[in-house]
Design brief:
Elements (H helix, E strand, L loop, with lengths): L12 E2 L2 E9 L3 E7 L5 E7 L1 H4 L2 H16 L8 E5 L6 E5 L6 H8 L4 H20 L2 E2 L8 E4 L2 E4 L6 E2 L19 H4 L6 H17 L9 H10 L11 H8 L10 H8 L15 H5 L19 H15 L12 H10 L3 H11 L11 E2 L5 H9 L3 E4 L2 E4 L4 H4 L1 H10 L3 H16 L10 H14 L7 H20 L3 H4 L2 H7 L1 H38 L4 H14 L3 H12 L2 E6 L8 E4 L5 E6 L2 E6 L4 E7 L7 E4 L5 E4 L2 E4 L4 E3 L8 E5 L4 E6 L2 E6 L7 E4 L4 E4 L5 E5 L4 E6 L4 E7 L14 E4 L6 E4 L4 E4 L18 E4 L5 E5 L3 E6 L4 E7 L7 E2 L5 E5 L4 E6 L1 H4 L15 E4 L6 E5 L2 E6 L4 E8 L7 E2 L5 E5 L6 E5 L4 E6 L6 E6 L5 E6 L6 E6 L4 E7 L6 E3 L17 E4 L2 E4 ...
Antiparallel strand pairs: 1-2, 2-3, 3-4, 4-6, 5-6, 7-10, 8-9, 11-13, 12-13, 14-40, 15-16, 16-17, 17-18, 19-20, 20-21, 21-22, 23-24, 24-25, 25-26, 27-28, 28-29, 29-30, 31-32, 32-33, 34-35, 35-36, 36-37, 38-39, 39-40, 41-42, 42-43, 43-44, 45-46, 46-47, 47-48, 49-50, 50-51, 51-52, 53-54, 54-55, ...
Helix pairs in contact: 4-6, 4-9, 4-11, 6-8, 18-19, 22-23, 22-24, 23-24, 23-26, 24-26
Keywords: Kinase, Repeat, Serine/threonine-protein kinase, Transferase, WD repeat
Protein name: Serine/threonine protein kinase-like protein
Organism: Streptosporangium roseum (strain ATCC 12428 / DSM 43021 / JCM 3005 / KCTC 9067 / NCIMB 10171 / NRRL 2505 / NI 9100)
Amino acid sequence: MGLTALAPGDPVRLGAYRLAGRLGAGGQGVVYEAYDAEGGRAAIKVLHGDVAADPRLRTRFMKEAEAARRVASFCTARILAVDFDAPRPYIVSEFVAGPDLRGAVREAGPYAGDALHRLAIALATALTAIHRAGVVHRDVKPENVLLGPDGPRVIDFGVARTGEMPPTTTGIVTGTPTYMAPEVFVGQRAGAPADVFAWGGVLLFAATGKDPFQAETLGGVMHRVLTVDPDLGDVAEPLRSLMAAALAKEATGRPTAHELLTGLLGGAAVTAGPPAVRETGAAGGPAPATSAAEDGGAGGEGTEDGVAADLVAGARAARGVLPAGSGAPALGVVAEEAFAGLPPEAQADAPGVLLRMIGDDSIQSIDYRPEDEPVIARFADAGLLVREGATVVPAGAALSRAWPRLREWLAAERDGLPVHRRLAEAARVWEERGRLPGDLYQGASLREALHWAATERRYLGMNRRERQFLDMASAVERRRQRGRRLVTAGMAVLLVFSLGVTAIALRQRQTLAGQAEDLGRQRDESAARAAAARADDLRDSDPGTAMRLSVAAWRIAQVPEARSALQAALAQAKIDVFTDPDATSRASYVLTPDARTLVRAYGGEVRMYDVATHRPVRSLRGVGDRAAVTAASSDGSILQVGERLWDSTTGKAVGPAIPEGARAELEPERRLLSITGPDGLVMRPLDGGGPLVSATGTEPEGTVSPDGRWAAVAGRQGTVEVWDLAAGRRAFSRKIDGPVSLRGERGAPQIAFSPDSATLAVGGDTSIVLLDPAGGKQRGEHFPSTGGGSLGFSPDGRFLAEQADDALYLWKVADRTISAQFPLATFGRARFTADSRTLRYPTDYGSVVSVDISAVTHTDTLNVPKERSGWESAAFAPGGRVLAYANLGVARLWDPTRLAPIGGPLTADAGSAGMFSPDGRTLAIPRRDGSAVTLWDVTTRRSLTTLETGAGPVMALAFSGDGRTLAAGVGGGGGKEIQIWDVRAGRITGTVPRGAIQSLAFRPGGDPVGGRDGGSGGEVISVGAELVALPGGRTVSAPAGVSGPDVQSAAFTPDGRVLALGLADQRVLLWDVERGARLGVLSVKGLQQPLRFSPDGRVLVTAGDGVRLWDTATQREIGALPLAATALDLAFSPDGRVLNAVARDGSVSRLPVEPSMVAESVCARVGSGLSAAEWERLIPGIPYRETCGR
């Protein structure tokens, strides 16, 4: 883990720790290197602000610490401290001084022989201890194995589960795909056998340097995990057999971690087959979480004493697993080495430079001065200082803790540092304002500074500006003393002064007008920032006001904070929160199934509110002082309050009494009542009469189709019955098995009818099936369920909602794919509005949250066949005018505006959608088998020529700026050479040997890079992490610390000055091509292709867990765009005002990017701007203005 500087907005201290810099960042948080008061080194994992606000993820973070604490410290990083109540919760853990396994293999190559065997023992020992503590890790991978000086440590229990935790329901989203066990991909729970499978995969990586089961897409990974037995190469016995057993496809066929350990230590051989003994903690509850490495004794195989003895032996063997080198040195060591490398005169200057920036508990930037260059350059090269334009700032706040020499300097200068800080600031202001005498020290301030400079300094010197400031202040003070004697003589100048009064007054008025304008601008900018911050605070509790306030902030002043707020207003999912004006935790609440009305019962009164308008609808009394509302008909006309049904329009009780503890489902249009209790279910007419359907058993599920014809009942044993109510007979009864599995403790399968009553959805733990209610025949493929939550169709029938414990998943019925996932903080049932644009759900305390899902349900979609394996590919022509889309090997052109195909298919043998030339006239499409690339004329849709690449799969394509040259990265294993083709002639003109290349991009203009074109005079192309001159193939520039396999995508600004590299660790590196310098690094959760710059190069758009905009000058995130599905390709319009997006589900969107268009879209979304009263309350002191028009 390499240390990088703290980013803007990062804290400098957390509790008792000072932060030195970033060790890494991911989707949920950031890991910092930190130091305590004694200089002790630690790693602190901190949640991102948006993640910390999510109760589900915050709870998971707490469980991560709980899981890590239960595991013996010899095999993981010991937890030192936690703070879950902080605004951004964090975990402090022991610092492991060594690389992760992936970095070690990248640096020193794969393991083999005894080194591989010792690594296998170490990891088996760690897994045995983890499982013995009752913990399942669930994300064992090379990045989570740190090679410390005393052996490997398994870290990051962020997705771990202990025996006391309920099983998760998130399916395959938990873990890393290439190290996930087959059972996880088919929806089963990740238990201890999944960790064993990952153990085998990690060792295979260590032995080969390649991730197991690697494929281009998640679908490809799934296929390989489920069907392919990996080649174990030259791995020797007994490790070879143990790895083969660990990688068995069936979980029951894998050994336990302890059996692996005993086999590696020389015990009984282990082969694939049912394990005889399981770890106590993993199967039967937690074992004592003591340090097994310190536990002595001996015992038989499988006993606690025997396990402890094996852990001792394994821990001893683990100490022999040493990484190449000694790991990243501590901050103090780095600083001392940097200081030692300075010449003597620079060493003398170092305290004066560093103490200006670093205090006991604070850091600050200083202006760069050429005389400080030797010190700054040395410490910046060591990563301790960061240059930011004309200023220099410490990379972190921990140097005063970590470096003893600096602590000594601070102790000696502590009393005088405040005096010097005031002097430095006064000297800076004096120089910036033109060295005016009025800005100089005088009197007591001057005497204090002179006293400090003369007698109290030991290490801290003054720079030239500060010396000149004091010299000038002293001189002015002396002149001031003499000047008092010359007052009389000075009166003569008054005559001259009076003659210039008029001219001076005019200049003063002009100056005052300019100052007033500056003050007005500063006031507006400050108000805009405050309004933007307030909008961000309100997004969860009052999303409508937050959107209106965001637009107002932008209208007041177009500062970066206001633009970010505006973008957030466009992308935010919540659009409204209605709360009962008299909300109390003692009241009961129900949201009607049509999502229009919130029903409240408390103190013998029922109130009903229109959720959209926030206005009361009606109320009724006399329902019972303690009665709770538990059910409502779709329109709210019939309510279950206590043990009676009430007609809310008349205020009278209707129908039969409801048995105590039972719940009702009301169908007033069909006059049907369904009552479910502990002993069974009965459906009968609402106005009396015998039961139409009855079922026995514990709490079965029942529902009636919208047209009233069908009634469905599901029992705990997985039996589903459908009754034809019109005919009075049972249509079918069947046991749901096969793709749907059930756990008895969950209850009956979830069931729901489609709006047209033609389909019944049945959901279990692992799958959802659609049935024909007339005969029970399954309709199409099953859905891979996320865990057995309640089901509901959208009113238009195109989507099926599955509500799990903490999230709602929207499945597209047509292709059985998840279109979107929305976090939920509710135990109530989420409901669709009639237009399918909004999802509403009740919270625990009388609120209803409205979530905009129109980006999913009302987005235009290409009419193409889909498959769930995810082989779709798409590419926009420049400007987004034409779209190429490939699915199931069939590639065709589309008009993205009309969503109409342009002619017939180009080919049925496409490996991807390919790449357009810069002028959009030519499309290069690789074959499925990677043996060739075909060039197509976009206008005529005719094949121009076929380039026989022949060397293996085509991993990357790039056209030169003039479209005359095509570069292709070809060859097995990720690309072995770059082929350069003359497009017009259809012939190869050269090759550039390279390995593992995933991205290519020609530099626009083809100009030399800082004069370093290698003497070729030709094109410059980004090949992985290198800039290569063509045709010679010479590397002319490359960012340090980045290798070819790290780079997944690349893009140049249109002027070719900046290169963006998308890295495998979910970061984007911005590289100044001309200067050969890093501009910054962006952390992008779930980063994937593509990267795109706006036509002016000022904005970068990234795709990952959402589509996000970035300011390339400041490296600041502007905000997200409302795209629910995973983006396949993105393209700015020629003017940069709109971003075209095509998603994996075939949806095509035109998303506003230019701020004025974004503001118009937000206004249309929220319906109005701030009222005058809201403005006065939220933005006091700024004159009211219309923000959304009239």
